[in-house]
């Protein structure tokens, strides 16, 4: 059984798993997270880390300040997030600014196939979430 840490995750993603396509894998200066850039999805960055009993993957979607009528938008995503398989919406602070994110977590005892599947589903869900945010910004979705 593989013990997931930054080294083993780097090896996994550096192998360019077919389900994810061509990837770039880097460790940002903070050093506690892996950045997996999905080239075929417009260079989408997925941040992956492992610690304790879990592996976590996250995609930053948009600065919260860029989303109009935040309270109504957040209510919308709370009502609909159960329709997003294997992923959850959240808010993270990046350089003092709130960002909407989509993340998923799984057991640190998961197989390589399951880790890749989780990231692939997260990427697909992030694309859908980005479209949702754009539709919200354009007034195509009512509160």
Tell me what you see in this structure.
- The protein has a single domain, classed as Yope Regulator, Chain: A, CATH 3.30.1460.
- The chain is built from three helices and six strands.
- It is about 30% helix and about 30% strand.
- The protein is an alpha+beta fold and about 140 residues long.
- The longest helix has 26 residues.
- InterPro entries: DUF2170.
- Pfam families: DUF2170.
- This is DUF2170 domain-containing protein.
- It comes from Aureimonas glaciei.
Show the helix and strand layout.
Elements: H1 6-14, E1 23-26, E2 34-38, E3 44-51, E4 54-63, H2 70-80, E5 88-94, E6 97-107, H3 112-137
* Adjacency order of strands in the biggest sheet: 1-2-3-4-6-5
What is Rg? 15 Å
Indicate the CATH class: Alpha Beta
CATH topology: Yope Regulator, Chain: A
Mean pLDDT: 92
Could you give a short account of the major beta sheet?
Answer: 6 strands, antiparallel
Work out the count of structural domains.
1
What are the low-pLDDT stretches, counting only 5+ consecutive residues below 50?
none
Overall shape: it is elongated
Q: What is the CA–CA distance across the termini?
A: 47 Å
Strand percent estimate: 25-35%
From the coordinates shown, what is the CATH architecture?
2-Layer Sandwich
Number of helices: 3
Total beta strands: 6
Structural class estimated from helices and strands? alpha+beta
Helix content: 25-40%
| N-to-C SSE string, H for helix and E for strand | HEEEEHEEH
């Amino acid at each position: 059984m593989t013990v997931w840490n930054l080294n083993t995750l780097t090896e996994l993603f550096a192998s360019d798993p077919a389900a994810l396509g061509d990837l770039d894998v880097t460790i940002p200066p903070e050093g506690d997270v892996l950045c997996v850039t999905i080239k075929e999805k417009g260079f989408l960055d997925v941040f992956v880390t492992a610690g304790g009993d879990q592996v976590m993957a996250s995609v930053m979607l948009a600065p919260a300040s860029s989303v109009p009528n935040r309270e109504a938008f957040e209510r919308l995503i709370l009502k609909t997030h159960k329709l997003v398989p294997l992923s959850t919406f959240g808010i993270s602070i990046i350089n003092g600014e709130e960002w909407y994110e989509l993340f998923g977590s799984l057991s640190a005892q998961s197989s390589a196939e399951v880790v890749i599947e989780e990231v692939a589903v997260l990427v697909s869900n992030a694309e859908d979430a980005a479209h949702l945010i754009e539709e919200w910004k354009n007034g195509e979705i009512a509160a």
